[in-house]
Amino acid sequence: MTTGYIALGSNLGNPRQQLESALEALRNHAQLTLLGHSPWYRSKAIGPGQQADYLNGVAAIASELSAPEILAVLQAIELDHGRERGERWGPRTLDLDLLLYGDEEFESDELTLPHPRLTERNFVLYPLYDLAPALALPCGTSLESLLARCPREGLQRTGDAIDPGR
Question: Which of 61, 93, 121, 145 is most buried per CB count within 10 Å?
Answer without folding.
Answer: 61
